[in-house]
Design brief:
By secondary structure, this protein is an alpha/beta fold. The chain has ten helices and ten strands. The strands form two sheets. A six-stranded mixed sheet has the order 6-7-8-3-9-10, with helices on both faces. It has a four-stranded antiparallel sheet with strand order 2-1-4-5. The chain binds adenosine-5'-diphosphate and magnesium ion (MG).
């Protein structure tokens, strides 16, 4: 396989093995990622869909440099990363940011939103105090929140607002890629579409590469340019969204589609009916 020179992040034949112990004397290796190859490109959203336990979050952790592959290669901005020391992680942190399902994991409960947004700028030594304050106020507008939110702590915000703050924090270092792992799964149905639209707008405006991970094929379909279907640690199907969902080549993809009944009656390029924001 040739190197994808345009890729912001590329995984090539990546395996991740976890040692799990089924009984005291028989350690068992669980292969959470099985020869996964994928590439993230500027201005495109790669949807990753699969049932719980299929390896999606493990893939996310590898993509953000949090977890080293057991074998295979990973490239950030064209450079292969082999050892994940603190310096390398910091460099990777400038390329890619993550948004998790639960914004509470990204936000310190006792920290003002303002401080949560300034923190990454300070850690990376970006700008002076004045430019940081400007940046924080830009970030909060970018995610559609009023400036007053800067003086709140997470507990004073709604779930949707908290996720917006987590997204603002993820954007603080001007990453080229956002990895969003089930970013709407913990939210009320009524705000899911708003967060999806926000991510889509930001991707467009900032020309980001995005990886959007969900167990829900409807959600993935709404936002993705390309879709990778995962099953037991493998990518079993990959292609443009319309193709993967319109004429799936794999039984597993058909099973996923069958579990999302409304999809059977709608074309793959339709937008799902969602509550107006
Ligand atoms: P998904 O996000 O698709 O639900 P995960 O990537 O979280 O799936 O998990 C994939 C598989 O790897 C599951 O079987 C899970 O139990 C296992 N797994 C994930 N993380 C660990 C870990 N740190 N130690 C052992 N097994 C793990
Ligand atoms: Mg997961």
């Amino acid at each position: 396989m040739n190197k994808d020179i345009d890729a912001l992040i590329e995984l090539r034949n990546v395996c991740v093995d976890f040692r799990v112990r089924s009984s005291l004397f028989s350690p068992v290796v669980l292969r959470a990622l099985d020869h996964v190859s994928l590439a993230v490109h500027r201005g495109r959203t790669l949807g990753v869909v699969g049932e719980s336990g299929s390896g999606k979050s493990t893939a996310a952790k590898v993509l953000i440099g949090l977890l080293a592959p057991s074998s295979g290669q990973i490239f950030f901005a064209g450079e292969e990363v082999r050892n994940f020391d603190a310096r390398t992680r910091k460099r990777i942190g400038r390329v890619v940011s993550v948004v998790f399902q639960d914004p509470a994991t990204a936000l310190n409960a006792r920290m003002l939103v303002r401080d949560a947004l300034i923190d990454p700028l300070q850690v990376h030594g970006i700008g002076d105090e004045q430019s940081r304050i400007r940046r924080v106020s830009d970030l909060i507008s970018m995610v559609g929140l009023p400036k007053s939110v800067l003086d709140a702590i997470p507990a004073q915000l709604s779930g949707g607002q908290r996720q917006r703050v987590a997204i603002a924090r993820a954007l603080a270092l001007e990453p080229q890629v956002i990895v969003a792992d089930e970013p709407t799964s913990a939210l009320d149905v009524s705000v899911r579409a708003q967060i999806l639209n926000l991510l889509q707008d930001l991707k467009r405006e900032l020309d980001l590469g995005m990886v959007f991970i969900s167990h829900d094929i409807q959600t993935v379909r709404h936002i993705s340019d390309d879709i990778a279907v995962m099953h037991r640690g493998k990518i079993v199907e990959f292609g443009p969204g319309a193709q993967v969902l319109g004429s799936p080549s794999q039984d597993y993809t058909r099973t996923l589609l069958a579990a999302a009944p409304s999809l059977l009656h709608a074309g793959p390029t339709d937008t799902p009916s969602s509550p107006s924001s």
